[in-house]
Design a protein that fits this description.
Blueprint lengths: L12 E7 L9 H12 L3 E8 L3 H13 L5 E5 L10 H5 L5 E2 L1 H15 L9 E5 L2 E6 L3 H15 L10 H4 L2
Parallel strand pairs: 1-2, 1-3, 3-6
Antiparallel strand pairs: 4-5, 5-6
Length: 171
C-alpha cells in the first residue's frame, strides 16, 4: 500500500494541546505560536485546549481527539521535562500504535545547536495512533518554533519528498 498522499496540496486538521498547571489562553504563547504556524501553512485548527499536567486528564483529551476521524494531527506543548508534574510522555506514549523514535532524536539534535547540552532534558516524542500523528513538544515557545520549523512543517506538507506523514493520516 502506498502512503503517498492523493493530493500534493492536502491540508490537515490539527488539534493543539497545551499541558500546563499555570497557563491560560492569554499567557499560552507556545500554543498560540503553534496555532499561528499551522494556519500560516494552510492547515485547519480542529480544536485547542489547555489541560493541567495530569496523565489521566491528558489521556482522556488526547484519546477523544484520536477517536475523532476529523482530527489527523495532535500537537502538544509542555509536560516533557523532568519536573515533578511533567507527565506527557508517561500519559501519551501508551496510546501510540507506533512510536516515531526519530522525532525525539532529531528534535534533540537540532535543539542542541540552539541551546547546547540543555536539550538532554527534553523528552520530546511522537507516535501514530488510529491514523493520527501525535507530536509532543516542550513547553517553551522557542522549542515549539524549533519543532515546527525543523521537523513538523515539512513532514506535514504533502508535497515534501522523499516522504512525509500526510499519506498515513489521510484516507
Amino acid at each position: 500500500m502506498s502512503h503517498a498522499p492523493k493530493d500534493p496540496n492536502q491540508k490537515l486538521n490539527i488539534a493543539v494541546l497545551t499541558v500546563s498547571d499555570t497557563r491560560t489562553e492569554e499567557s499560552d504563547t507556545s500554543g498560540k505560536y503553534l496555532v499561528e504556524a499551522l494556519q500560516a501553512d494552510g492547515h485547519n485548527l480542529a480544536d485547542k485546549a489547555i489541560v493541567i499536567d495530569d496523565k489521566y486528564l491528558l489521556r482522556a483529551k488526547v484519546s477523544a481527539w484520536i477517536a475523532d476521524p476529523e482530527i489527523q494531527v495532535i500537537l502538544t506543548t509542555g509536560g516533557t521535562g523532568f519536573a515533578g508534574r511533567d507527565s506527557t510522555p508517561e500519559a501519551l506514549a501508551p496510546l501510540f500504535d507506533k512510536h516515531i523514535d526519530g522525532f525525539g532524536e532529531i528534535f534533540r539534535a537540532v535543539s542542541y545547536e540552539e541551546i547546547g547540552s540543555s536539550t538532554i532534558q527534553s523528552r520530546a516524542l511522537a507516535g501514530l495512533a488510529n491514523r493520527t500523528l501525535i507530536a509532543c513538544l516542550p513547553g517553551s515557545t522557542g522549542a515549539c518554533k524549533t519543532g515546527w520549523s525543523k521537523l513538523l512543517q515539512e513532514q506535514l506538507t504533502a508535497s515534501h519528498m522523499p516522504c512525509n506523514f500526510v499519506g498515513y493520516l489521510t484516507k
